[in-house]
Specification:
POU_dom, about 150 residues, hydrolase, DNA-binding transcription factor activity, Nucleoside Triphosphate Pyrophosphohydrolase, alpha+beta, 7-stranded mixed β-sheet, single chain
């Protein structure tokens, strides 16, 4: 171990189906480079990754556990560096139960959008996030065929 404290975060890739289109919830940060991501945040001491993902989704998007169906057979781990420190982000997939449910932003975000894969990928920018969205799309299409 290099002595660098690894940063750890968790969140949910939330989607909804509108007619035949799969749309993903992306939220724009109200700080730094105003990047777009699904709801996520840092894991607090004593908290599991999934507990963090659920808490952060509630805090950042106003969506509680009753607002979506967690698809826990899809879990994606992203690893990258932030300001020279290794970071791991775990995402689960979740389907919004009520497609017209209102998202309520915290002060951490300034805007949100429901977007199909191509638009979501162009806003997401980071290769790891784009591949997570692409894998989510493939998984949802197979999942929906069941």
């Amino acid at each position: 171990m290099s002595g660098l404290q690894e940063l750890r975060a968790a969140g949910l890739v939330i989607y909804r189906c509108v007619a035949t289109e799969i749309q993903y919830l992306l939220m724009q940060a109200s700080y730094a480079d105003h990047h777009w991501t699904p709801p996520k945040g840092h894991v607090d001491p004593g908290e599991s990754d999934l507990e963090t993902a659920l808490r952060e989704t509630q805090e950042e998007a106003g969506l509680s556990r009753n607002d979506f169906t967690l698809i826990d057979s899809f879990k994606k781990e992203l690893k990258y560096e932030v300001r020279g420190k290794p970071k791991t982000v775990i995402y689960w997939l979740a389907e919004l139960n009520n497609g017209s449910k209102e998202v309520t932003l915290s002060e951490e975000h300034q805007e949100y959008r429901w977007l199909p894969l191509a638009e979501a990928s162009s806003l997401a920018k980071f290769p790891e996030m784009i591949s997570t969205l692409e894998e989510s799309e493939e998984f949802i299409k197979k999942y929906k065929q069941k």
